[in-house]
Design goal:
Chain B: It comes from Agromyces terreus. Chain B: This is NitT/TauT family transport system ATP-binding protein. Chain B: Residues 18-252 form the ABC transporter domain. Chain B: Pfam families: ABC_tran. The complex is a heterodimer of chains A (278) and B (279). Chain A has helices at residues 2-6, 16-22, 26-50, 62-74, 77-109, 111-126, 133-140, 145-168, 172-180, 185-221, 228-237, 241-269, 274-277. By secondary structure, chain A is an all-alpha fold. Chain B has 279 residues and is an alpha/beta fold. Chain B has two domains: 1-93 and 173-279, Rossmann fold (3-Layer(aba) Sandwich), CATH 3.40.50; 99-169, no CATH class. Chain B has helices spanning 62-70, 109-119, 127-138, 154-167, 184-201, 212-218, 246-250, 253-278, and strands spanning 18-28, 35-46, 51-55, 77-82, 85-86, 94-97, 172-176, 204-209, 221-226, 231-237. In chain B, helix 2 (109-119) crosses helix 3 (127-138), helix 2 (109-119) packs parallel to helix 4 (154-167) and helix 3 (127-138) crosses helix 4 (154-167). Chain B is globular. The two termini of chain B are 34 Å apart. In chain B, 43% of the residues are buried. Classes of the chains: A mainly alpha (278), B alpha/beta (279). The interface between A and B is medium-sized, with 22 and 26 residues.
Chain lengths: 278, 279
């Protein structure tokens, strides 16, 4: 409770835990998070592994998951399945980027294109990817095909629709300035529309990374013999929940890692957006 | 103390640099299907080297007149001549300083100032770098060449806008409430600087403002607008000696006389506008 009140009244100086947290350096904050994670893992380990309050088959403790991770590394199933998944993910994501960027730009630049493509794009985007999964099997068989399809359909629309929105929300005052100084139509697109769409592109890419990963796992959960989703379902079906959790952890790391990579690229390509976010 | 029309006694019979002739601009409002007249029957001559301030309540169409001179809006009837030729679009002889600065957020100060030259395809050779640097120095932003706009204060951003306008050496500077979004202290400092800068470069200026003090301090002539529909109410010569500064001018009896007169004129205008708006 003292934490809640510390930032409340105007007469109360920023003290206590809240003040201490606010005053921490970047390194200090990282240390606090590390301690937090450690405490949670420790409690988890004690409750499930040591006191046995929850059946570890349903919810394996951290040390068991680490062991499960070591097992799937040792028997080679992680490397084999991760390679298949990564291939499908990267192929699908690349297709989504190659198709999504130009179509998004066209939608943003031309009202007729937006009127035709927009409703279709929104409809597909609004449908949960899992609904397309049975159809994807029918269309693309049982190999990597349906996985790539679900990754594409998951990643395509956030990229496309964000870019279209970015083009359309380009500041009219910047366009006016470009026209006043004699900019041609081509200048307007190259020097004003495109650069002001860049932050939207990266926002779309970040969403696409997460959705593509969901699409990939969903596609692999049934009817696939390989991939991270197949590894998770096989491990769970054979009560090796520790291995299943280890595989889920790897997928989470992939998703978080790729999102971080997109942000890193954005900082290199578009340094002016850096301060806007924080 | 006032001259009722836009005409004034020029020592020489030189042709005006900007000539607004019987200008009317109306817009079609798609939502209601109505036609809105922004300005009606505006006549105004601005001579080379003149600093004309345009004063009026919001929505009186003063920005519309400037947009026609800039070549961004086409007249519904009447015409605007610049140097004797009708305006059909933007041109390198005119530059605009915007109220909202309109700087490209992804460009540094240097690259934003360069923008004016770049759009006019003036980047051949090496001379342009010096011109950009000179313009940046002229507005007092040396050392900030590599900053992004959002790292600068409002006043500094508008200095960038000013540098971008003057770097291409236009004959006419169009300034649309350039200090409207700047804090009060910075505004006073920048008024003096703009006054000095314009005096040094000899540009012809059309300067839109809400501020009576600003209109008097900067203008050779003050054009007062009325609204519903937008039209010129009166044109006043300031007849204050230059160089002027905020402090020297404010105790001048002529300044006080002008300020009282403009107050009365605008107050009547604002009252009318409020009544018209409420009916």
């Amino acid at each position: 409770m003292s934490v809640l009140f510390a930032t409340g009244g105007p007469r109360v100086a920023r003290g206590g835990l809240a003040g201490w947290l606010a005053g921490l350096s970047t390194g200090g904050r990282a240390a606090v998070i590390a301690v937090e994670v450690f405490v949670v893992l420790l409690l988890w380990q004690l409750i499930v592994g040591y006191w046995g309050i929850i059946n570890p088959v349903f919810f394996p403790p951290p040390l068991a998951i680490a062991q499960g991770f070591a097992e799937i590394v040792a028997n080679g199933s992680l490397a084999a399945n991760a390679a298949v998944s990564a291939q499908a993910w990267l192929t699908g994501f690349t297709i989504a980027v190659i198709v999504g960027i130009p179509v998004g730009l066209l939608m943003g630049a031309s009202l007729p294109v937006d009127k035709v493509v927009g409703p279709i794009a929104w409809t597909i985007y609004a449908t949960p990817a899992i609904a397309y999964q049975p159809l994807a099997k029918a269309w693309f068989g049982f190999g990597i095909g349906p996985v790539i399809f679900l990754v594409v359909i998951s990643a395509l629309f956030p990229i496309m629709l964000n870019i279209a929105a970015g083009m359309r929300t380009t500041s009219p005052s910047l366009l006016r300035a470009a026209r006043v100084y004699g900019g041609s139509q081509l200048d307007l697109y190259r020097r004003v529309f495109l650069p002001s769409t860049v932050p939207f592109l990266f926002a779309g890419l970040r969403q696409a990374v997460v959705l593509a990963t969901i699409g990939m796992v969903v596609a692999e959960l049934s009817g696939s013999s390989s991939g991270m989703g197949a590894l998770i379902i096989r491990a769970a079906n054979t009560y090796q929940t520790d291995q299943a959790f280890a595989a889920i952890g790897v997928v989470v790391c992939w998703s978080v890692g790729m999102t971080g990579l997109v942000t890193l690229i954005e900082r290199r390509v578009a340094p002016w957006t850096r301060k806007a976010r924080r | 103390m006032t001259t009722p029309t836009a005409e004034r006694d020029e020592p020489a019979a030189s042709a005006p640099l900007i000539s607004v002739r019987d200008l009317t601009v109306s817009y079609h409002v798609a939502r209601t299907g109505a036609t809105l007249t922004a300005v009606e029957g505006v006549n105004l001559d601005v001579h080379e080297g003149e600093f004309v301030t345009v004063l009026g309540p919001s929505g009186c169409g003063k920005t519309t007149v400037m947009n026609v001179v800039a070549g961004l809006v086409a007249p519904t009837s009447g015409e605007v001549l610049v140097d004797g030729r009708p305006v059909t679009g933007p041109g390198p002889d005119r530059a605009v300083v915007f109220q909202d600065y309109a700087l490209l957020p992804w460009r540094t100060v240097f690259d934003n100032v360069k923008f004016g030259l770049e759009m006019q395809k003036h980047l051949k050779g090496d001379g342009w770098r010096d011109r950009v640097q000179e313009a940046i120095e002229l507005v007092g932003l040396s050392g900030f060449e590599n900053s992004y706009p959002k790292e600068l204060s409002g006043g500094m951003q508008q200095r960038v806008g000013l540098a971008r306008a003057i770097v291409a050496e236009p004959r006419i500077l169009l300034m649309d409430e350039p200090l409207g979004a700047v804090d009060a202290l910075t505004r006073e400092v920048m008024r003096d600087e703009i006054e000095k800068l314009i005096a040094a470069t000899g540009k012809t200026v059309l300067f839109i403002t809400h501020s009576i003090e600003e209109a008097i301090l900067l203008g050779d002539r003050i054009v007062v607008f009325k609204s519903h529909p937008g039209a010129i109410k009166e044109v006043i010569e300031t007849k204050l000696a230059r160089p002027r500064s905020e402090r020297s001018v404010q105790s001048d009896p002529r300044f006080l006389e002008l300020r009282d007169h403009l107050w009365d004129a605008l107050q009547a205008e604002a009252t009318e506008a409020a009544v018209a708006g409420g009916s």
